[in-house]
Automatic annotation (TrEMBL):
EC number: 4.1.99.1
Organism: Anaeromonas frigoriresistens
Pfam family for this entry, one: Beta_elim_lyase
Organism domain of life: Bacteria
Protein's UniProt name: Tryptophanase
Record-listed N6-(pyridoxal phosphate)lysine modification sites: 258
Length: 459
């Protein structure tokens, strides 16, 4: 249930944004091959491309930047960050990285052998890419309800435990590298994973001798949903829920650009495996940097140390998730099909339902992204077949079970007036949705193609 509330902060600095004329927007998107990643930030009015590194830091975090210790080794900010991680997450060992994909690039070679499967609820694009680049195969084992956008389920990010068990039995334990739990589950629509399901996954892992890791980019948002939706956790503190959540894993990778509320940063954190930690320390040096900075300046680590302590504050989480819920409710009332219930960091529009005349191989959600920019200067992102890519063995275009447009809300950046502008834009597009056409490639990279591919409209 939506609850109207004021933001738990005051604004002390603003950044000017402008809506350029529609004819200019149409020209800009054509020039970049109908790929919104190619647009300049100055051409965007409301930027919902990602919540990664796009949030607004607090005055406390900005103050921390002035305390940056830029020593090459042993920076005091590293130890401040270590204390925050121990206090909030409960893990003993960590190395900083420049962002989440840096963490995956360091950790995954230590865990994956050629041809092994990595079992996840639903892998995101960079995670899937790093698994495949290390010779592994990413397998999605999320519950079927995640694929029904109109079905209400409080934890659509949950693993299907029967599928998980059957897959391990069928392929053999020796062919499975590890299990990774993505919290919240981005590709399923920012959907949370229940504590009950995390416990069940851990039981399966223990039965077969498999390791459990977390993709922890939005860990605090997941904990907030557990508190609000799962019986027995309504009276627990967010930090208490977080520590229990991570107690069922051996380690994590994190893009701290999300729930760390920083513009750059990431980490690998491990509970107690000293041998794996030593491997991580050795790997991080040639890839990211010395283990006590790992691709980050001292001031970046200080901002992250403080951001981790801010993100667990319940009034912040209530405001943050409440704004996303506000946008989702308004779109739903306007007749725009969305993934329900609304997730933590974004509203996901069901482009397959909105544009059923555009087939998956012509990327309906990407067509909707282009139209949204033309309509109102709003930049969103496709989470569907365009992002999913091709089968690594056959090179055939894969069909995503979901064709979603993600409206990703940066933290502490926009007001609900901006949310209302987004809703009006969708209302206008909805009136002419039957006129929208799909897209095909003029340039297609082999890895993570959606970032730099170029497209053309289907005539």
């Amino acid at each position: 249930m939506y609850e109207k509330m004021a933001e738990p902060y005051r604004i002390k600095m603003v950044e000017t944004i402008k809506l350029i004329p529609k004819e200019e927007r149409e020209k800009r998107i054509e020039e970049v091959g109908y790929n919104q990643f190619g647009l300049k930030s100055e051409d965007i009015f409301i930027d919902l491309l990602t919540d990664s590194g796009t949030g607004a830091m607090s005055d406390n975090q900005w103050a921390g930047l002035m305390l940056g210790d830029e020593s090459y080794a042993g920076s005091k900010n590293y130890y401040n960050l270590k204390d925050s991680i121990k206090d909030i997450i409960g893990y003993n060992y960590f190395v900083p990285t420049h962002q989440g994909r840096g963490a995956e690039n360091v950790l995954f070679p230590l865990l994956i052998k050629e041809g092994q499967y990595v079992l996840g609820n639903m892998h995101f694009d960079t995670t899937k890419a790093h698994i495949e680049l290390k010779g592994g195969r990413a397998v999605n084992l999320v519950i079927d309800d995640a694929y029904d956008t109109q079905k209400e389920h409080p934890f659509k990010g949950d693993f299907d435990i029967d599928k998980l068990t059957s897959f391990i039995e069928d392929k053999g334990v020796e062919n499975c590298a590890f299990i990774i739990i993505t919290v919240t589950c981005n590709s399923a629509g920012g959907q949370p994973v229940s504590m009950k399901n995390i416990k069940e996954v851990k039981k399966v892992a223990d039965k077969y001798g498999l390791r459990v890791f977390f993709d922890a980019a939005r860990f605090a948002e997941n904990a907030y949903f557990i508190k609000k939706r799962e019986k027995g956790y309504e009276n627990k503190e967010i930090k208490e829920i977080i520590k229990e959540m991570f107690s069922y894993g051996e380690g994590l990778t994190m893009s701290a650009k999300k729930d760390g509320i920083v513009n750059m940063g990431g980490m690998i954190a491990l509970k107690e495996d000293e041998e794996l930690f030593e491997g991580v320390r050795q790997n991080v040096i040639p890839i990211e940097g010395f283990p006590t900075y790992g691709g980050l300046s001292g001031r970046d680590m200080e901002a992250l140390s403080r951001g981790l302590r801010e993100v667990v504050q319940e009034d912040y989480l209530q405001s943050r998730i409440g704004q996303v819920e506000y946008l989702g409710r308004k779109l739903d009332e306007a007749g725009i099909p969305i993934q329900k219930p609304v997730g933590g960091h974004a509203v996901f529009v069901d482009a397959k339902k909105m544009l059923p005349h555009i087939p998956y191989h012509q990327f309906p959600a990407q067509a909707l992204c282009v139209e949204l920019y033309k309509e109102a200067g709003i930049r969103a992102v496709e989470i569907g077949s365009f992002l999913l890519g091709r089968d690594p063995d056959t090179n055939e275009q894969l069909e995503s079970p979901l064709e979603l447009l993600r409206l990703t809300i940066p933290r502490r950046v926009y007001t609900n007036n901006h949310m209302d502008v987004i809703v009006e834009a969708f209302k206008n597009i909805n009136e002419r949705k039957d006129q929208l056409k799909g897209y095909d490639f003029t340039y297609e990279p082999k890895v993570l193609r959606h970032f730099i591919a170029k497209l053309k409209p289907i005539e």
